[in-house]
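Bench notes, bay 3.
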Amino acid sequence: MDRLARATTVLAEATAAADADQPASPQEDAALLSRSSLHQELDELTARHALLMHASVLADAEAAAEPAKHAAVVAAAQATEGQRRPSTAAEMAAARDAFMAHVNGADDRIAQTLSEQRRLTREALQRIFPYAVTSRGRHTVRRNLLENSGLGIDAYQQASRAIGENARKLQSVEAAYRSGAVSFGRPSVSHDDVEQARAALQCAEFRFADLRISRPNTLRALRALDRAVHHEPSGSEAPAARAARIAAQSRERSKTTAPTAPRTHTATTAAEQVHQAHHSAAQQHQPGVRPA
């Protein structure tokens, strides 16, 4: 934006000084070309930021999915804490079905949310960068989002080197300013020179600090974008796999809460119920295999 503002100023000055009856001067042509190029660069930058915002939202949603699934297991177990422990097979089956219905409903809502967010991200990619429908096009987008934005693999080294160079320059300028010595043929070092050197160092330090945030976040967003592009909607999770996952989460919750909440066998009951569901599903799908 700063470069564009300067280019616009130069163009305005060149145009104001020109004769309307004469062809455009080389200075006018150069100023117009520079301004047009910067406008195009700004449009591309805006498009890249828009796509990164979509991908960042998707990355946030994916990161929140697993904790949300675990929270659904905890909520389902807590919902049964005040109930009497099942004593018959029918009561156990009913309790297991109620538990799994709660968890399955939450899982389905989470999956639907992620699927919708992936769809929006894919559509944003295709709308903002239509050429990204091919693998080469997506590679170009990725390169523009990293290397062309100064976030490449060597960005940390370059930013760190810039801090060192500007720090040494500031020390040299400050020393010359304090000594008051003037080398032959060189102007004296002024207070403004010192302030400019200090501002350059602060800018380099800010760049490095920003890079430590922006590069990991950009890579995180790009990984989410890659998953959205290559994601293939799958069928619902198999009952045995889902039961095994819920049982593992219940056991984890039992370990976590046992020292501080010695309430009745809630988490264990949930784990037992899901464990039985896992065995039942395994027997149905593999009649010749004996459950372990």
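Next record in the batch:
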Amino acid sequence: MFKRTYFKLFIPAVMVVIMAACASSPSAAPQDKSVTLLFNVQSPSIDPHADVNYTAVRAGVSETLIKVNKDLKLEAWLAEKWNSKDGQHWTFNIRPGVNFHSGKAVDAAAVKASLERAQKLNPSLKNALHIRDIHADGQILSITTDKPFPEFVSELVHPNTAIIDTTATGDFPSGTGPFKVVSFRAGSELNLDRNDQYWNGEVKLKHAKFMFNEDANARQLAFQAKTADIVYRPPIESLELLKADSTVKVDSLPSLRTHQLIYNMNNTDLKKTPVRKAFDNLIHRDEIANGIMSGQGTPAQGPFLSDFPFSPKYITRKFDLNATREGFKQAGYTVQNGKVTNPDGKPLHLTLLTYQSRAELPLISQLIQANAKELGITIDIRQVDNIDEYLAAHQDWDLATYSSITAPRGDASYFLNAAYMPEGALNYGRVRVPELEAMITQLNTTVNEEQRNKLALEAVTLIDQENLQSFLVHPNNVVAYRNYVLNWVTSQSEYYLLTQDLDVN
């Protein structure tokens, strides 16, 4: 195996280092306690119904009817209880005594208006919820879905369903969370103050700042300069240095996230299953996990962690250029002197999209590019700022590195619906497999957990057989924070960051 040098894509860090934000310290007066969190994905919006980065929920501004706990089990939040006898007709008891930041009481009518607004602004969310009608009566919210949908309640965990006061006239969303928005600069920072009337008890911090920077090196510099108390996903190569600092704590735990390579099915070559299978052999998962990610990840054989009941027993995928060449031959391509040409005799030339907010993705792209070059396949790497917006709006690409939380509620249905149904929010590759769609549709109407897992297993097995995407690595969720930060929880779901319990001493 020959060695390769990976070149970091670097964005100037000066702006982060000179930020005016003042980090908390152990000497802060109790009434002035504050925390600054530096996040790795820029958010252009604070509107919870439109923001794909879920900033309002992550920053403790807004809350959903249901939440997911550390064990990936559903838990009451703004809805104190719920029930359904048939999986289609649902009743939710909205928690009494809760007010929006605007002062307006949260009742079923306010929740109804918020959910209707969310569906209007977010077509992908509307497609996911399958709501036929909503009725409000005092604190009782009744929802009927357009078909039996046993997993409907878990969809209400999604941060885009966060409940806000739709009648509020301010510049910022009026949520119910422990923090209220003071100011917001898109892609830069969100400033927050404590909600003194928070319904769920004491909020420890008076102020909080949620800052954004997609460059891992810049985040590290800001943390070193103490302009941030908590840094989300510091550079992997800095972990040993951080762990050696007695004033810093580092959390690293397996996440529910999967890095993947999306194939654009509109590409004449990539829409062929044998070509995608051949291409998959170009991917050196061990080098990604152990080299690029310094062991802070696990090679992925499929979309979900292996211990989920809907993950099949995979044949371990291995990097093998000869297998790639043989695969192209079987697909009807010509291989001469180790180089691949398509049936028309032309070499393959592909465009691969990537993005900087997950620093390893450009490096993974370079590795794939280098491996493809060995076969005479040219890959042009293009970096974009907002990968979701770009993939949704453009088709001038062939491959894309992407990262998503595939089982945020411990169930397969979210990812299967989002990535493989025609209207799925994550179906950027325009996947259309009628047999798979039928499996997912049946899954959506199945109540029994054992049967659901069986159907999900069948769907994931078909995804593997067709190689609809290449799943690269399950990255660890890594967070560094100062030792005076109390009650910080690094969660697998990544939904809840600034909480009422977060504190400093």
